[in-house]
Amino acid sequence: MTTTTQRVAGRWTVNRSAGRSSAAVIRPGFAWAVPATLFFVLFAVVPLVLVAVLSFTSWNGLGSPQWTGMANWNALIHDHTMIQSLWLSLLITVLGVVVQTPLSLLLGVWAAGRQRNRAVLSAVYFIPLLLSATAISVLWRALLDPNFGVPAQAHWLFGNGNLLGMQSGAIGVLVFVGAWQYTPFHTLIYQGAARAIPQVLYQAAEMDGAGTIRQFWHITLPQLRNTMITSMILMVVGGLTTFDTVLILTQGGPGTDTTISAYYMYQKAFKGFDFGGGSAIALVLVVIATIISLIVVRVSGYDKMRSSAEGL
């Protein structure tokens, strides 16, 4: 295999050419995919179908579900709390993407270095990945307590200290806690992708007189394009399905100011014993997350990405 570099539109790219071996390529058979396919069908497709069926029924968890047709869907259309929860879910998701993407990108590229101090700091920074969302939410609930937490000792910064008592403060806390927990995960993705960038690109750019900043904008960032799209899709799906953080930190309050769709689904199904209505909300979330992901893939051109070893 031969590798060459060329500069196109101010960016360095790698051209790889290789002759294929005359030996036949051994490709894995369909049997290799059977275990994963069965797992996906049993734990993803079947539950989703059951939820879709349940959304057309009335069921309180006891007895047999009663078919009600479009009653649950008609109720959702005229449910103000449901409409508000969708907007809140989208708002928190967008804020999460805006905050986490630049942080994780810069930290991931920085952590890709091989110096010992970077490795130690990266290991410390990745600690939130080892904690559950519940533990993290309980931790920040205690730290942000207006009577005994950090706000009680820093009135000059937090005012009355009750950040969770107003909508803007509560949403800010949810976005911050989500970023604190999940940015290390996306940083790890960018770190691996940055280390996979061919060093010959940086060597050629350095010989051409490009500094660190120019190398980042013209080499690192373009090479991480597909990684960025993957990370953003994960952020979107995770943001729309956030539940435990809201349950522990705000419980949808104050009032319904942080009642996102996932939490409203919980309220409907497990507090109001309306599993039909809760199933309808769950199906709406699945549809919205799927549509947004498909739009991101389509607009970004991610669906046209091909691997040099595709099909092996």
From TrEMBL:
<dbReference type="InterPro" id="IPR035906">
    <property type="entry name" value="MetI-like_sf"/>
</dbReference>
<keyword id="KW-0813">Transport</keyword>
<feature type="transmembrane region" description="Helical">
    <location>
        <begin position="86"/>
        <end position="111"/>
    </location>
</feature>
<feature type="domain" description="ABC transmembrane type-1">
    <location>
        <begin position="86"/>
        <end position="296"/>
    </location>
</feature>
<keyword id="KW-0812">Transmembrane</keyword>
<protein>
    <submittedName>
        <fullName>Sugar ABC transporter permease</fullName>
    </submittedName>
</protein>
<keyword id="KW-1003">Cell membrane</keyword>
<feature type="transmembrane region" description="Helical">
    <location>
        <begin position="275"/>
        <end position="297"/>
    </location>
</feature>
<dbReference type="Pfam" id="PF00528">
    <property type="entry name" value="BPD_transp_1"/>
</dbReference>
<dbReference type="InterPro" id="IPR051393">
    <property type="entry name" value="ABC_transporter_permease"/>
</dbReference>
<feature type="transmembrane region" description="Helical">
    <location>
        <begin position="228"/>
        <end position="249"/>
    </location>
</feature>
<feature type="transmembrane region" description="Helical">
    <location>
        <begin position="30"/>
        <end position="56"/>
    </location>
</feature>
<feature type="transmembrane region" description="Helical">
    <location>
        <begin position="163"/>
        <end position="182"/>
    </location>
</feature>
<comment type="similarity">
    <text>Belongs to the binding-protein-dependent transport system permease family.</text>
</comment>
<feature type="transmembrane region" description="Helical">
    <location>
        <begin position="123"/>
        <end position="143"/>
    </location>
</feature>
<keyword id="KW-0472">Membrane</keyword>
<keyword id="KW-1133">Transmembrane helix</keyword>
<dbReference type="InterPro" id="IPR000515">
    <property type="entry name" value="MetI-like"/>
</dbReference>
